[in-house]
Design brief:
9-stranded mixed beta sheet
C-alpha cells in the first residue's frame, strides 16, 4: 500500500476585515451599573450597611412621606429654596408622597431640579404648569368600564383587577390618581382597599364571562399584597377555566428591587403560582415599570437574575416623561439596559392626560420621533411599542396609528375598532409645547370646540 502525503495545514490566521467601525464606550453604557455602597453618600444612610439597605422591611419603614423626614435624611445636601418649593408642590399635588430610601439615594441632591427620580416622585411648585383644559382624573374612564368596583372590563378578552389601592411608592404621574394612595388637599380618593368579598365578586364576574382569558392584577401594586394573598388570588384565577394568562403588575423592581432578594415568602408565593400556572399550561408573568436607566443598579441586576433563575418572565411598561426619558439617548439607554437584565421592554406609554402633572407630559410627535430612533438599536423583541392609551376608554393604540393629527393644535384622534367600534378618541398634546397663538386659542372655550370638532371631522373622513 503506498502512503499518500498528508495535506499541509496552514496555521496562518487570516486577518478578519471588520465591516463596521468599533463602537465607542458610550454604546456599551447600558452595562455600567451602579455598584458598591452608593447609598452611603446620603447623610442619614452613611452608616447603613448592605444587609440593612437590602432589607425590604427597612426600606418600607424608612420611606419618605413627609417633608420633615426628607430634611432629616438628606440634611445639608439640597440647594437653598428647594424645601419651600417642595412644600408648595405637595399642597397642589393629586398624589401623596411616598419614596423609598433606594430612590432617595439615587437622586443627585446637588442638582435635584433636573434629576429624573426627583421629577417623578417629588412635586415642586416652581415646575408646575397650567393644566390643559381637557385633562381629568380617571382620564381612561376605568370606573365607567367597571362591572364590580376594582375590576375594569374594556377589551373583549382582558380585565384589569385592582385588589388594593396602595403602592411601595407613589408616582406623581399615576393614571389612577383617582384611587391610589392617601387623600390629598386636591383629591379625595375612591378607595379600593383589600377586601376578600370584593375580590370574590370579581372572580365570579370573570368566571361568568367566558371571553375573559387575560387578567392583569394591578392596583395599587402587587408588591403590597401579602404572600398569602398573592397565592390566594393566583389560585382563584388559575382555577377559572377561561383564564389563560395572568400578569402581576408591580413597580417594585424599579423602586425597591431588594424585596425580591430578601422577602422570600413573597417571592416563593409568586414562584408557586407561576409554577402551578406552568403545570396547567397557563402563563403567569410579572409586569413592571422602569422609566429611567438610572433605576437599574447592581441590586436590580441581582433581583432580576433571581426571577430569571426561577423562570419568571418580566416585561416592562414605561411612561414617556419629560426630563426623564424623552430623548433618544435616555430612551435607548433604558431599553438596552432592560434587555441587559433580562426584562422585556414591552410598552412606552405617551403620558396619560392626568391632572396636576402637566410639566411631565410630552407630545405624540415626541413619542413618534423617539420610537423611530430606538427601533433598530437592539433586537425587535426587545423594542417597546409606543402607545397612546386613548382617553375615554379606547385602550392602547400604536402612537403612529392616529386617524388624524394636527401638530399645531396638538390634537390627535384615534379609533379602536376592536374595542369600541365606531367611536373616536382625541388625545391632546400639552399646551407648553404649542405656539403662543395656539395656547391662546385653547384659553377660549369657543375655539376649543372648533379645534376638537375640526380634528374629529377630519378623522371621521379617514377612519376605516
Ligand atoms: S406604582 Fe403604579 S399604581 Fe402606584 S402610584 Fe405608581 S403608577 Fe400609580
Amino acid at each position: 500500500m503506498s502512503s499518500q502525503p498528508l495535506p499541509v495545514v496552514s496555521h496562518d490566521v487570516q486577518p478578519i476585515v471588520a465591516k463596521k467601525p468599533p463602537v465607542d464606550s458610550d454604546a456599551l453604557a447600558h452595562r455600567d451599573l451602579r455598584r458598591g455602597p452608593w447609598w452611603q453618600k446620603i447623610p442619614a444612610y452613611k452608616a447603613v450597611d448592605e444587609a440593612t439597605f437590602l432589607d425590604h422591611a427597612w426600606q418600607a419603614k424608612n420611606s419618605i412621606t413627609k417633608v420633615a423626614k426628607l430634611v432629616e435624611t438628606i440634611q445639608e445636601l439640597v440647594p437653598p429654596g428647594f424645601i419651600e418649593d417642595l412644600e408648595g408642590g405637595m399642597k397642589r399635588a393629586p398624589m401623596s408622597v411616598r419614596v423609598s430610601p433606594y430612590l432617595v439615594a439615587l437622586i443627585d441632591w446637588e442638582h435635584p431640579f433636573e434629576d429624573p427620580e426627583r421629577i417623578q416622585f417629588f412635586p415642586l411648585a416652581s415646575r408646575l404648569l397650567d393644566d390643559h383644559p381637557k385633562l381629568g382624573l380617571d382620564s381612561l374612564h376605568e370606573q365607567a368600564d367597571a362591572p364590580v368596583p376594582g375590576l375594569t372590563h374594556r377589551y373583549q378578552d382582558k380585565a384589569l383587577f385592582l385588589p388594593l389601592d396602595t403602592c411601595p411608592v407613589y408616582c406623581r404621574f399615576c393614571t389612577r390618581s383617582y384611587a391610589i394612595g392617601l387623600d390629598t388637599d386636591e383629591v379625595e380618593k375612591v378607595h379600593l382597599r383589600p377586601n376578600e368579598d370584593r375580590w370574590k365578586r370579581a372572580y365570579q364576574y370573570i368566571a361568568s364571562r367566558p371571553e375573559l382569558e387575560d387578567i392583569v392584577i394591578s392596583g395599587g401594586d402587587a408588591y403590597q399584597l401579602r404572600a398569602q394573598h398573592i397565592e390566594e388570588i393566583g389560585e382563584a384565577l388559575l382555577a377559572i377555566p377561561n383564564v389563560r394568562r395572568m400578569r402581576f403588575a408591580t413597580k417594585g423592581p424599579a423602586v425597591m428591587p431588594m424585596k425580591i432578594l430578601t422577602d422570600d415568602a413573597w417571592l416563593d408565593a409568586l414562584t408557586r403560582v407561576v409554577e402551578k400556572g406552568r403545570r396547567v399550561h397557563k402563563d403567569v408573568v410579572l409586569h413592571t415599570h422602569f422609566n429611567n436607566a438610572g433605576e437599574i443598579t447592581g441590586i436590580t441586576e441581582a433581583a432580576m437574575r433571581r426571577l430569571f433563575e426561577r423562570g419568571i418572565m418580566v416585561r416592562n411598561q414605561s411612561v414617556l416623561i419629560r426630563g426623564v426619558n424623552d430623548t433618544v439617548a435616555s430612551m435607548t439607554l433604558l431599553v438596552k439596559r432592560l434587555g441587559h437584565v433580562n426584562v422585556h421592554p414591552y410598552y412606552v406609554y405617551v403620558h396619560d392626560m392626568v391632572q396636576g402633572v402637566e410639566d411631565l407630559r410630552t407630545s405624540v410627535d415626541t413619542a413618534i420621533f423617539i420610537e423611530k430612533s430606538v427601533r433598530g438599536s437592539t433586537a425587535g423583541f426587545n423594542t417597546p411599542t409606543f402607545v397612546v392609551d386613548a382617553p375615554g376608554g379606547g385602550g392602547k393604540r400604536d402612537a403612529h396609528s392616529y386617524e388624524y393629527y394636527d401638530r399645531d393644535t396638538g390634537v390627535s384622534v384615534y379609533s379602536a375598532p376592536s374595542v369600541k367600534p365606531g367611536q373616536l378618541f382625541p388625545y391632546f398634546d400639552p399646551l407648553h409645547q404649542l405656539s403662543t397663538h395656539q395656547q391662546r386659542r385653547w384659553a377660549d372655550p369657543g375655539e376649543q370646540k372648533v379645534m376638537v370638532e375640526d380634528a374629529l371631522s377630519k378623522a371621521r373622513g379617514r377612519a376605516r
